[in-house]
């Protein structure tokens, strides 16, 4: 009777509990299998991550080498730029010196031009007896020297002779004779 009913209820509960336990064990087995699979995948991912980190370390080392080369090149460029800057400064100084020398040359040229004008004016005041301006004698070809030959008259001697001829010998009294002149 009554005990059998109670036992049947307990037995059905035990059976239901056993079924639930079996289902839970199946679920746990599936979870363990899935977890094992995921752990395997995780291990593979960790291995790939390790490889990626090694590649990153290698890339960082390459970047470090490139940055070091860039720094060295920058130092070389800075040195080159300093040398170029020094050369440009030197060229500027030389250009300024040249400009100053050109200014000095221009001033000297203007002064020389003024002095040449004054000299030309002063020479223009000299007149010969027949009021003809003094002309330059034509150059003669050199003559062969002989044992008794005297040197060719120099420009001052020719001038003295012209003055002597123009003033009728009055200049001869105040001017030394042609033999006293030395050749320039």
Q: How would you describe the overall organization of this protein?
A:
The protein has a domain at 1-93. 77% of the residues lie in helices and 0% in strands. It has helices spanning 2-125, 155-166, 170-174. The longest helix is centred in the middle third of the chain and has 124 residues, at 2-125. Mean pLDDT is 79; it is low at 136-141, 144-149 and 170-176.
Write the layout of secondary structure elements.
Elements: H1 2-125, H2 155-166, H3 170-174
Number of helices: 3
Distance between the termini: 172 Å
The number of E-state strands comes to 0
How do the SSEs run, as a string of H and E?
A: HHH
Q: What's the quaternary structure here?
A: single chain
| Helix content estimate | over 70%
What number is the mean pLDDT? 79
Global outline: rod-shaped
Radius of gyration (CA) equals: 61 Å
Largest sheet: none
Low-confidence segments: 136-141, 144-149, 170-176
Strand share of the residues?
under 5%
In short:
The chain has helices at residues 2-125, 155-166, 170-174.
Task: Please tag this protein with its features.
77% helix, mainly alpha, 0% strand, 184 residues
């Amino acid at each position: 009777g009554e005990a059998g009913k109670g036992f049947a209820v307990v037995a059905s509960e035990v059976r239901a509990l056993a079924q639930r336990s079996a289902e839970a064990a199946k679920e746990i087995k599936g979870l363990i299998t899935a977890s094992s699979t995921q752990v395997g995948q995780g291990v593979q991912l960790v291995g790939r991550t390790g490889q990626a980190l090694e590649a990153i370390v290698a890339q960082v080392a390459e970047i470090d080498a490139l940055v070091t080369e860039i720094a060295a090149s920058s130092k070389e460029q800075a040195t080159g730029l300093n040398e170029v800057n020094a050369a440009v400064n030197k060229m500027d100084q030389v250009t300024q010196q040249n400009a100053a020398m050109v200014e000095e040359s221009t001033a000297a040229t203007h002064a020389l031009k003024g002095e040449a004008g004054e000299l030309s004016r002063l020479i223009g005041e000299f007149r010969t007896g027949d009021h003809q301006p003094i002309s330059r004698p034509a150059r003669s070809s050199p003559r062969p020297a002989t044992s008794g030959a005297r040197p060719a008259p120099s420009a001052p001697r020719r001038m003295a002779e012209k003055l002597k001829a123009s003033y009728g010998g009055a200049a001869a009294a105040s001017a030394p004779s042609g033999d006293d002149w030395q050749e320039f």
